Amino acid sequence: MVEIKHATDETFEELVLNADHPVVVDFWAAWCGPCKMVAPELEKLANKYEGAVEVVKVDVDANPSISRAFNIMSIPTIAFFRPGKQPMGVIGFRPLEQLEQQFGLAQFAAPKAQPSA
Questions:
Q1: What's the pLDDT score for residue 57?
Q2: What count of other Cβ atoms lies within 10 Å of the Cβ of residue 112?
Q3: Under a CB-based contact definition with an 8 Å cutoff, are residues 46 and 96 in contact?
Q4: pLDDT of 48-87, one tens digit each?
Q5: CATH number of the 5-104 domain
Q6: Which residue among the candidates 35, 66, 99, 105 is catalytic per the annotation?
Q7: What pLDDT does 100 receive?
Q8: Cis ω on the peptide bond leading into residue 76 (within 30° of 0)?
Q9: Contact 19/79 with Cβ under 8 angstroms?
């Protein structure tokens, strides 16, 4: 199982903004019911795209500077950061399949191994 990193106001730039690969960021809070529903979907995403797409969580209560910087007004907000591109995001619970479609993640999936003849 892949370890999902937790970014803080101090580490967000290093973990997300300066990453050399795409990063999905989960803006969440411990008291948020829908945030708890999103967590297993992001674990699936982290495992499926291991090595290609990083998943990072940001506790909005503990890291208000990041929330203000990205104008996070509702949680959960799931944002997709690609190097050199503007981030995009969705608000509320989304299953893995919807996140994959919304962010175009299929292009980052590892190619399927061809069966040997």
A1: 97
A2: 6
A3: no
A4: 999 999 999 999 999 999 999 999 999 999 999 999 899 9
A5: 3.40.30.10
A6: 35
A7: 94
A8: yes
A9: no
Q: Hey, what are 40's tokens?
A: 């297993």
Q: Do residues 63 and 30 lie in contact, with contact meaning Cβ atoms separated by under 8 Å?
A: no
Catalytic residue among 2, 4, 19, 32: 32
Nearest in space to 75 (alpha carbons), one of 23, 41, 26: 26
pLDDT at 112 over 80: no
What token pair was written down for 19?
Answer: 């990453």
Domain extents in the chain: 5-104
Whether residue 35 lies in the annotated active site: yes
At 94, list the tokens.
Answer: 């989304």
**How many residues are present in the chain?**
117
